[in-house]
Amino acid sequence: MATTAIWDVTDRLDRVIDYATNPQKTENLDFSSPDFRGLQNVLAYTQQDTKTEKQFYVTGINCDPTTACEQMSRTKLQFQKTDGILAFHGYQSFVPGEATPETAHAIGVKLAQELWSERFEVIVSTHLDKHHLHNHFVLNSVSFTDGKRYYDNNATYTLMRQTSDRLCREYSLYVIENPQKGKSRHYAEWKAEQEGKPTWRGLIREDVDKAISASMTFTQFIATLRKQGYEVKTGVKYMAVRPAGKERFVRLKTLGDNYTEEAIKQRILQNRAPKRPQALPEPKKKRYTIRGGASLKKVKKLTGLQALYFHYLYKMGILPKHRASNKRTHFLLREDIRHMEEITAQTKLLCTHRIENKEQLLTFRNSLEQEMAGLYDTRKSLYSRIRRCKDDEQITVYKEQIAGLSKKLSLLRKEVKLCAGILSRSEEMKQKLHQIKQEEIQQRKEEKAYEQRSRRSGPNHQYES
């Protein structure tokens, strides 16, 4: 199965792909103006060596990949159409393990040839840096044959998706037959559900289902949702809810056909003997083990980043195995269970290398980057030796050395990525924990005030509606 998408490229694309490293700039003054920087950036990103294995999976259609930016820019200058949309950036993603790099690239090239080769310059690159192989297409917005612009609309996108599906069938890849309109899901959500991991929309469905089962009326249903910490928007065209800690409301109808307001009312009516509202049970959690460090009982008192991560895991209900409290985990933390592999790897890195603060983390990351730079230089020299060498046995030795270096670089890149993830996630953790703490303080204040009112009102207060 392959999912597809396409969007326009403007001169501000560099903000979207700011993690592109060292984009190659042309020295020709005609094409160094800010008008073409977005095009340069997206071409540099899609052809990055670390993503395409030394550009082995990069193909140019009606252009040379090494000079694609110059050729596309000349087309724009020739027809005096250098303003507006510079190019279109297409995307085609495959399910992990479904296709080989060769197959994915072949499908991408055929797709581009069928759709755009008669009139446009296109770059096709297959990225191998994720668990799922995916193709990128950079399509010039101006035709080299007639100077007309590419018109991206529902019809052209539908043709792109249908062509992709047909090619996938030809290569015996899975295709979703008769997809329902408006039922598409983001790849991350689909993948998480396939792996049995929670998504934040899935958590909302779970809470709505429990609220329905505990209600006899629609009013009770809304009250139950609010007790769970949801802000509920009613009296509007589409009923919407907002979980605690989220900025945006979610329309319940987008969760599925069983979650429209009318469907929810019908489901409530079917409750002949609804369950009595009570404390919602804690969802069953998968247990994770932090390997590579000492026992929690033997380890010294944790501080800094290590303490933050372990406290976060405790609040999520992951550590320790047997918690004394049965308090329901906050929504903000429940949704992070889907990122447990990443959080576990980050925790392991902090403990293994005894990193306690941001300064130590940055120092460690810099040492990794320096080591990577040295390995890149060594690998580059080995590639040069192979080009000059005529001894097959020696070439085999060089290739084995390159393979070893590539393996080390892959591990180092993962650790650099973990460091970057810790820098961003640690701030998110602090914000979430602070928000949860403030909510708990406010809740305790309200409970205390309620108890004081109850004592002042006398013993019969508890029976008042």
Observed structural traits:
alpha+beta; BirA Bifunctional Protein, domain 2; 3 domains; 5-stranded antiparallel sheet; 3-stranded antiparallel sheet; 15 helices; 49% helix; extended; disordered C terminus; Relaxase/mobilization nuclease domain-containing protein; Endonuclease_MobA/VirD2
Describe the structure.
The chain folds into three domains: 2-170, BirA Bifunctional Protein, domain 2; 200-269, no CATH class; 304-436, no CATH class. Helix content is 49%, strand content 9%. The chain has 15 helices and eight strands. A hairpin with a 7-residue loop joins strand 7 (240-242) and strand 8 (250-251). Helix 11 packs antiparallel against helix 13 (340-352) and helix 13 (340-352) packs across helix 15 (392-457). It starts with a strand and ends in an 8-residue tail after the last helix.
> What is the element string, with H for helices and E for strands?
EHHHEHEHEEHHHHEEEHHHHHH
**Low-confidence runs:** 12-37, 50-55, 291-296, 461-465
Determine the strand fraction and express it as a percent band. 5-15%
Strand arrangement within the widest β-sheet reads 1-3-5-4-2
| Separation of the first and last Cα atoms | 56 Å
Mean pLDDT metric: 76
Class derived from helix and strand content: alpha+beta
Shape field: extended
CATH fold-level label of the largest domain: BirA Bifunctional Protein, domain 2
Q: What's the Cα radius of gyration?
A: 28 Å
Strand runs, count: 8
Number of structurally distinct domains: 3
Task: Tell me the CATH architecture of the largest domain.
Answer: 2-Layer Sandwich
According to CATH, what is the class of the largest domain?
A: Alpha Beta
